[in-house]
Amino acid sequence: MDIFEFVKLPHRFRWGGVGGDDCMTFPSTWAERSIGVDPAEDLRGTYRDRDGAEVIIARFGGLVPMMEHQLAQIGAKRVQQVQDGDIGLIRAMTAEAPTTAVEKEIGAVRFGPLWAAIHPGGVRAVKAEFIAAWRLPA
Q: What secondary structure, in 3-state letters, does 33-95 show?
């Protein structure tokens, strides 16, 4: 499966990554579909909301260390030059409420010149700066 096919699949936002994905399990689902290994398997279902996710992230010391730890376990390598299918931590605007947008750090997958990420409204492909990126093993 390539990233274009993955993005076209039906996706559902669900905190904790069970029965759907949140912004951090979405790239892990891509990894599972792409190489058959889920880097978030041990985290899925261990939280049910943003507060629970933030507790887990804090335990790792932040999003980059958490992603580095989880992705290293499946052999993903950090990269500076991104390509389609790379997993990244991006900085993008998200809607906190219907009239309020705030900048957040979000897990995403490189999709052409954009980054695909999941939001409560579904998958969105956005132009964004990446903070860190990893390439899945072949």
A: HHHCCCCCCCCCCCCCCHHHHHHHHHHHCCHHHHHHHHHHCCCCEEECCCCCCCEEEEEEEEE
